[in-house]
Amino acid sequence: MIDLSRLAAMQIRDGIADHLFTAREVAEAALGRIGALDAQVHAFNQVTAELAYAAAGRIDDAVASDVVLPPLAGVPVGIKDNMNLVGTRTTCSSRILENYESAYNCTAVSRLLDAGAIPVGKCNMDEFAFGSSTENSAFGPTRNPWDLERVPGGSSGGSAAAVSAGMAAITLGSDTGGSIRQPGSLTGTVALKPTYGRVSRYGCVAFASSLDQIGPFAKTVEECALALNAISGKDPMDATSVNRPTEDFTAGLVDGVAGLRVGIVTDLLEAEGCDGVVQASVRAAAETFAALGAEVGEVELPSTAHGLSAYYIIGPAEASSNLARFDGIRYGHRVSGADDVLDLYMRSRAEGFGPETIRRVMLGTYALSAGYYDAYYGQAQKARTLIKRDFEAAFERYDVLLTPTSPTVAFKIGEKSSDPLAMYLSDIYTIPVNLAGNCAVSVPSGSCPASGLPIGLQIIGTHFDEATVLRAAAAFEEAVGFDTTPPLVREVR
C-alpha cells in the first residue's frame, strides 16, 4: 500500500508518470487511509469513492496513451463542504442543507479537477463557516490529528485535518476571517489565503461576499503553490474575480530571501491573549529571516485594534443577507404542517440552523436594521478603510509582514464553545488581512515545548503578491525543517 503521508503532490504525479504506481492505486491508498483514520478524526462529511475511481481511471488512461499529464495528475484532494461538486451533497455542515445535491461545480473545484486531481471527499466545517474550531458542525466536531481531544481550528477544520492526517495531499478551504490560516496553524499544515479576487468564489456558498476567498491546504509550500496555479484566474461567473496574467507560483520558490524587507507587526504580536510561546516563535522566525539575509524591522498597524469589532459587524451583516435564501421554500430543510408562510419560514430556519448560525444572522440583521445601519455597519466600514490604509503604509516599507497566525496552540474540544467572545479572539491576527483583502500564508514555525502541538507563523503580503509570500514561506520552511507528521499518523505507519 502506498504511504501517502510520505509523498508530496509532485511525487505522486511523477510516480504515476514513471509507472511506479497507478492513479487507481493512489486512490485506493487515500480511501484506505480515510477508512482507517476518519472514524477518529471526522475530517469528512462524505467520502466520494466513485468519483475518485472515475478520475483515477481517466489519469491511468492518459498514462496508457502517453498523453502529457496535467500538473496534479492523481493527487488526492478534499473539498470543503461549502463548495459544489456534482455527484456530492453540499451541506455546509448544516441540517438545513443536509440533503442538498450539488447542481453544478464550484469553479475552483473544477479547475483543481481539470489539473488532474482525484476528489476523495467533502470536508467537515463549522456550519456555514461560522466558527474557529469545527465544533459547530451539525454532523459532529472534527478532531485534531495531533491530539484527538483538541480542535483542528475552523471553520475549515476538516480540510486541515485531512491533510494533517495524510488522507489527502491537498484540500480546499474558504477563508472569511482566518478559516484557512488558523486551522493550518493548529494542525501544522501550510495554509494559504489568496488575495481577494485571485480565486473565483463561484459555486462556494457565501458567508460574507466581500471577505470570502478560497485557498489551499497542503503539507508543503510548493504544494500550496501548485494548487494556487490550478485554481487562480479570472472567471466570467464571478464579477469579483480579477483579470490578471496567469502566474507560475512555483517559479520563485528557490530564490531565497536575501534583501527581502520583512516587518514584524509588534502591536499585533504583543496583543493581549497571545501565549508567550507563540510570541517567542515569531521572534525566532524573524531571527531566521535575518540569518537568511532578509532585512528585518518592526512596524505597527494601529487600526487593526478595531479589526475584530469591525469584522463581527460586517461579516454577520453580509451573512444575514446571504442566508436569507435558506427559507424552506426553494430548497433545503422544510417543516411540515406549518400554519402559514411565516410559520414555515420561522420553524424551518429554527430547526435547520444551529445556535452559532442563528447568533450571527441575528447580529447581522440587527446591524443592518433601521436606525442602526450608520451607527454600526457604516462605522465598521470606516474602520475597515483605516485598516487597509495601515497595510498600504506598511507595504511601502516592507515586502512581507510577520505575525502569529493564532494566539494559542490548539485548545481542547469544549474549552471555548460556551464563550463566543473567547472563540472569536482566535482569529485576532487573521481577520485584519481579510478586511484589507491581502494575501497571507500560515506556515509551521515550531511546536510548543510543553504539549508538542504545532505553532503557525503568518506571512502577509500586499495585494496579488502571493509569489513573494510563498517565496518567503518556502525559504523559512526549508530553514526550520518542522516535522509536520502528527502522532496519529506515526502510529498507523
Could you walk me through the main structural features you see in this protein, from its secondary elements to its overall organization?
This protein has 493 residues and is α/β, with parallel strands linked by helices. The chain has two domains: 4-263 and 396-492, Amidase signature (AS) domain (Amidase signature (AS) enzymes), CATH 3.90.1300.10; 305-381, no CATH class. It is 40% helix and 13% strand. It is built from 17 helices and eleven strands. The chain has an eleven-stranded mixed beta sheet, with helices on both faces. Helix 2 (23-41) packs antiparallel against helix 3 (49-64), helix 10 crosses helix 12 (355-368) and helix 10 crosses helix 13. The longest helix is centred in the last third of the chain and has 25 residues, at 373-397. It is globular and about 65 Å long. The model has no long low-confidence stretch (mean pLDDT 95).
